[in-house]
Write a structure and sequence with these properties.
The complex is a heterodimer of chains A (about 180) and B (about 200). Chain A has about 180 residues and is α/β, with parallel strands linked by helices. Chain A contains eight helices and six strands. Chain B has one domain: Rossmann fold (3-Layer(aba) Sandwich), CATH 3.40.50. The chains are: A alpha/beta (about 180), B alpha/beta (about 200). Chains A and B meet through strand 1, strand 2, helix 4 and helix 5 of A and helix 3, helix 5 and helix 8 of B.
């Protein structure tokens, strides 16, 4: 089908979006929705890319990158949002940019009830912690939203999260 | 059982000794007493202090070490600080920046909150965790000779370096630094990256 590649184009294009933001470090707790982006980042010698044991670590690593003059991003899924709350104080207290791209679970057509609580609370938890949240539900707007959110974070020195809906990534199906 | 030593190291001279003639070493220190110890060694804009976000000392130093591969970076925190995000040692093992040293001031206590026994106080060997994570240089420092060696390893050792320094559960007077994180970050970045970096 001709429509399918266009709908999924963001999976390939997002790497270029991160590069256009001059991001140099990528840290992640993987999610299937980020899989292709993570592979592209790992294959890019201009990016320092690596996994975390826990999203909490990602805040410190992104702040450390900024201390050292580099921009960083954390890729994660919504179930990890609760893990970052205490660490977010580090970015907030220091007037430090923090940028994360979160793939959502627990919303659009979710089959796993355990994903509902962290997914449903994710945007409110982030906002309560002082993070500016951009939600994206249209595949055609993913890259533009990430680009705008990244500029907001790094140029205005604030924490910003992009939440990519399951309407974009597709609800996970176990067969 | 905890490691029994007849004469545990005094934390303040230990830290001051590690930072002697530090050159252009970048230091990330975590709450709380590790900060007072570092500040007691002399105010320096290349010190970055985390007065909160407990567990973030190692990740922050790791991100910094990856961003500044030509500079040596020292992460200095208490045993409970590092244990709170002990998975970060696995991430250090994964990324293996050769310019990073992690030094744990291990008094086997949650010192700031009433000296409750911490995990290392019941025999959990944090240096053993670092060894299991594949860090190439791991030390358990129990005496002045160990400190002297560690100081060299921080600057020249094949990294990432990890050391637990067994210290007495004393609480020397607080030496309060600039508490405002935004000021601390701006000073650090200006000293490291130059004034223009503050304009980007």
């Amino acid at each position: 089908m001709a429509a399918q590649p266009a709908r999924d184009a963001w999976r390939d294009d997002l790497h270029g979006t991160l590069r256009s933001l001059d991001i140099r470090q990528v840290v992640y707790v993987p999610d299937a929705g980020h899989a292709r982006l993570i592979d592209r980042c790992l294959a890019d010698p201009e990016l320092s890319t690596g996994a975390l044991t826990n999203e909490f670590e990602g805040v410190g690593m992104c702040v450390g990158a900024w201390l050292g003059g580099q921009r960083a991003v954390m890729l994660m899924q919504s179930s990890g949002v609760g893990n970052v709350v205490n660490a977010l104080g580090l970015a907030q207290s220091c007037g430090c940019p923090f940028f994360t791209v979160v793939t959502m679970r627990g919303e659009w057509g979710e089959f796993n009830p355990w994903q509902i609580p962290p997914g449903q609370s994710a945007p409110r938890v982030l906002e309560a912690a002082g993070v500016v949240v951009h939600r994206v539900t249209d595949p055609a707007l993913v890259c533009d939203t990430v680009a705008a959110a990244g500029r907001l974070a790094f140029q205005s020195y604030i924490p910003v999260a992009v939440l990519i809906s399951q309407q974009v990534t597709g609800a996970k199906v176990f067969k | 059982m905890s490691i029994q030593t007849n004469a545990r190291l005094a934390r303040r001279p230990a830290v001051q000794g590690l930072l002697r003639d530090r050159g252009d070493l970048l230091v990330v220190a975590g709450l709380g007493s590790a900060i007072w110890d570092v500040e007691s060694a002399g105010e320096n804009p290349l010190n970055f202090y985390l007065l909160g976000a407990m567990g973030s000392v190692v990740p922050t130093a790791l991100g910094l070490a990856l961003a500044q591969p030509s500079r040596r970076v020292l992460a200095l925190g208490g045993d409970a600080e590092v244990m709170m995000m002990v998975g970060a040692l696995a991430t250090v093992g994964l990324r293996r920046p050769p310019n990073l040293a992690v030094v744990v001031l291990d008094n086997e206590r949650f010192g700031e909150t009433g000296k409750q026994a911490s995990h290392t106080g019941s025999g959990i060997d944090i240096a053993g965790i670092a060894e299991s994570c594949g860090l190439p240089t791991v030390r358990r420092v129990l005496d002045q000779a160990g400190l002297d060696e560690l100081r060299g390893l921080i600057h020249r050792g094949p990294g990432p370096v990890f050391a637990s320094v067994k210290i007495a559960a004393e609480m020397p007077p607080v030496v309060m630094p600039i508490r405002n994180g935004a000021i601390g970050m701006a000073r650090f970045r200006e000293a490291l990256l130059g004034h223009e970096a503050l304009k980007v």
